[in-house]
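Worked example 3. Consider a protein that binds flavin mononucleotide.
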Amino acid sequence: MLKGKHIVVGVTGGIAAYKACELVSRLSKQQATVEVVMTEAATSFVNPETFQALSRNPVITSLFQSVKYWEIEHISLAQKTDAVIIAPATANIIGKIANGIADDFLSTMVMASTVPVVLAPAMNTQMYENPVLQRNLELLKSYGYHFVDPCEGLLACGDTGRGKMADPALLEEYLVSLLMPKQDLAGQRILITAGPTREEIDPVRYITNYSSGKMGYALAEMAQKRGALVTLVTGPCQIPVPEVNEVVSVLSTEEMLQAVMIRYEQQDAVIKAAAVADYRPADRAAQKIKKQDDSSMELTLVKNPDILWELGKAKNNQVLVGFAAETENLIENAASKMTRKNLDLIIANDLTQPGAGFNHDTNQVTLLYPDGHSQQIPFGEKKKIADSILDEISRLLDGKIV
Ligand SMILES: Cc1cc2nc3c(=O)[nH]c(=O)nc-3n(C[C@H](O)[C@H](O)[C@H](O)COP(=O)(O)O)c2cc1C
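Given these inputs, the predicted complex is written out as structure tokens:
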């Protein structure tokens, strides 16, 4: 499946470097072009000749060894590759990448690269749990670096705990899904709403919420990668907009309603991931409201249209998916919302869970179906969660009566 892909395998100085041999062998068997870059420390664990034989390519071990031709190797390699995977990834390389240090071939090439970079951390449990390392991981995740998390087990240092590098087979699988996304949504028209809405009080003030748009954007990106024709209707967000068929930017809930309703008929599925404001100021002041002498002021709010309810009412064979972000009685509230709004699936999002909900790169959700059954999606990156949600939507679209 990886035939024709160019993959750089970075190997750093940890005991798990021997496992990178299996990874390189697996990728070569898939007929990918594999080039191995080793740090100096890595060469103390595995001989470069081993990787040379397994990859059938020269192995790079130093920033200056290759300054022979006109090409600057760390730049040209970064430009021609489809993905970089660093396995094992030491605490050191993670720290260097997170802090912009480029003092050897691997770290310099990563700095110059715009393709996906996957890291497979491997280290002693205390090193892995060190808050400095955890901060670096979070930072890199927020920049879009991919991680295949280490598992628990007996470590080379004799301890038992988290820090064991993920299996090479799992790393291979991750690369396949990253570089060869399945096309199970090919041709399906999916509209996704994302982000908060903004309800203006006057020309300088508004009511909104903490939604970042990350979950909706992750769904849009992954659906597009899986072949869907995606329309993203987005409230104001501060994150890069994914490349999808159509992007419609809106501000208020009413604008979002308009944008969604005029496109609804053409859609095969609609996913409402936006956190819309339920109320808006009754009147938007034309001029900035001046501070008064009174100790309080009153702002009258009126109810906004309920977009999901409108969609449920007008549903004509579309798969309709909603989100329920709750701080209490999650499952009950989500199930009742699903019934009231005629949904095919609701994604219950517990805002009280650490690392879940608004503004995080990670999430943990429960999928609820009208027949009463539910499915828990474990804590993970929003893109991974998005993929699991899309698996279900793909299944619902397959079963749709046309
Ligand atoms: C025997 C031995 C095993 C090591 N195993 C690991 C490891 O599993 N993970 C890690 O982060 N560092 C490990 N280290 C420490 C790294 O080799 C060290 O931090 C080095 O500077 C990493 O350099 P690099 O990231 O450029 O490869 C080990 C060191 C030794 C001597």
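Take a moment to read the result before moving on. The first helix runs from residue 17 to 29. The domain at 6-179 is CATH 3.40.50.1950 (Rossmann fold).
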